[in-house]
Amino acid sequence: MSDDLTIRRAGDDDLPAILDLLQSSLGWVPDEQYAAFYRWKHHANPFGTSPAWVALDGDRLLGLRVWLRWRFVQDGQRWEAVRAVDTATHPDAQGRGIFRRLTTSSLEVLREEGVAHVFNTPNEQSRPGYLKMGWEQVGKLPVGVRFRSPLAAASAVRARVPADKWSLPTDAGEPALEVLGDDAEVAALVAALPDERIRTDLDVDVLRWRYGFGPLHYRAVREAGGIGLFRLRRRGAATECVVGHLLAPDETIAGRLLRRIAKVSRADQVLQITDRPHLRGGFLPLPGGGPVLTWKAVNHTQVPPLERWGLTMGDVELF
């Protein structure tokens, strides 16, 4: 391989090579489900198609940098952001600085396009690389957990394995898209959400996209005045329920939704992001906390402190 690389924005014709790269570097499976997953995630997003950059050595695609578009709102103010996801470098091209070159080149373009900032929750292996490129560590997101039993709690404490990517099929609750089917009901619930903290700018289309990809098996429960969205996955020997979003105007309704989710899911543990678990359905603070939120300035230059964020698992889980 030569030392010369071409860095450019990806186009539609690059998709087959992109999927090949994700298979060789991130373990994606070469089947239609993964291809459909990429198209849903990066092409069907109501916030916009994900801008992506590729690195090529001649005609060979060796690197990929994708930014998932997102929008935030606080106190009626909205702004565009991106989430750093699905970065890949071919195993044959490690050590050539592809990750850094793709990142710096694309951020310059995103700045010109008006993107405010980048956010993501990198793991311990990738976080140092981001911090070296100017990312700032906002803090560890507070996670609340509810265990099905003392035995389930003991098993969870011992388990040190990552959760599965794909959800478990289940008949718990109702299919998410069916529960989100009433435009007026969902719009009213979104309008009632508090926005004194920074949260995702939700609407009917965003929710149906976020919870509508069939193979992720998102489910929902209803309570008077609210909807709760969740999915089940395996974490080692345990069944884990991840609460995505609670469309609830207050803590009382949120608590009812969480108790309902815990009951119908029959999961060994139920997880949600919250800094007030005692108000929400018998949850306790998760020992060690949750994922670490990081932030990179693009046009907004001052990182908001952790207490100003009102994120959910549906915003930050790796989907």
Keywords:
single chain; 319 residues; alpha+beta; Aminopeptidase; 2 domains; eight-stranded mixed beta sheet; seven-stranded mixed beta sheet; 10 helices; 15 strands; 29% helix
Q: Can you offer a commentary on this structure?
A:
With 319 residues, the protein is an alpha+beta fold. The protein has two domains: 6-139, 3-Layer(aba) Sandwich (Aminopeptidase), CATH 3.40.630.30; 143-290, Aminopeptidase, CATH 3.40.630. Helix content is 29%, strand content 29%. The protein is built from ten helices and 15 strands. The strands form two sheets. Strands 1, 2, 3, 4, 5, 6, 9 and 15 form an eight-stranded mixed beta sheet that branches. A seven-stranded mixed beta sheet has the order 8-10-11-12-13-7-14, with helices on both faces. A hairpin with a 2-residue loop joins strand 3 and strand 4 (77-89). It is globular. The two termini are 33 Å apart. 38% of the residues are buried. The mean pLDDT is 92.
Q: Concise description?
A:
The protein has 319 residues and is α+β, with helices and mostly antiparallel strands. The chain is 29% helix and 29% strand.
CATH fold name of the largest domain, please?
Aminopeptidase
Tell me the domain tally.
2
Structural class: alpha+beta
Strand content of the residues, in percent? Answer: 25-35%
Let me know the largest β-sheet: 8 strands, mixed
Poorly predicted residue ranges: none
What's the architecture of the largest domain, going by CATH?
Answer: 3-Layer(aba) Sandwich
Number of extended strands: 15
Number of helices: 10
CATH class type of the largest domain: Alpha Beta
Query: What is the CA-based Rg, rounded?
Result: 20 Å
Q: H/E series, N to C? A: EHHEEEHEHEEHEHHEHEEEHEEEH
